[in-house]
Fold this protein.
Amino acid sequence: MNKETVLDILERVKNNSLSTEDAVLLLKKSPFTDIGFAKIDNHRELRTGAAEVIYGAGKTPDQIVKIVETMQKAGQERVLITRLSASAASSVSKETALTYYESGRIGMIGGCAPASGGTIVVAAGGTSDMPVAEEAALTAEFFGNRVTRLYDVGVAGLDRLLSYLDDIMTARVIVAVAGMEGALTSVIGGLASCPVIGVPTSVGYGASFHGLSALLSMLNSCASGVSVVNIDNGYGAGYLANIINHPER
């Protein structure tokens, strides 16, 4: 159930086309649907402005299909599936109208919401960081944001980043994705006037400790206006960028 559905119910009560008792019954319908192995949150969009998302890793294709069907029966037309493997996507697509983006391990049903608000810039330090960057970019696009991608602009070749100063300085939000020592976030934070979301990745050699080095570097950034999500959490960064870009939701 989303805000539009609730407003429609209230409008029908106002117009005397729906009794208050029936309206209460509609609103009281279970806020979640229990399908045994999962409990689908039907009221999440009403509470938070964004409907529930399926985390695909660890779920079988049959489980994902069942969850999607339950969401759709509850009125959720668009569904986002994160961390979806190519093999699982192939199976799910046989049962649903799935669009799969292998680069970000993202599956979408129903497409993206119409884009509005400012531009979200997603910058990635290196090509190896692109899977996490694409997860962030596709998530932001799914929720209705314009996204500009700046890939392979790490600080080892600073001129590459500086060639995009117009994009950096006009962005509404910037998601900075980097492994190794994670310096890209601090550099961008020192150039941009908008919020910067750092995403440390597990890319790097032994002493990077699977992203811990980048995480600690970003947390210790001397640049103001920088926040940091967990290692490899492109979805979390894209979702947060969407909230910043659409505070009215």
Observations:
- The mean pLDDT is 91.
- The chain is about 40% helix and 20% strand.
- The first strand starts at residue 32 and ends at 34.
- The first helix runs from residue 3 to 14.
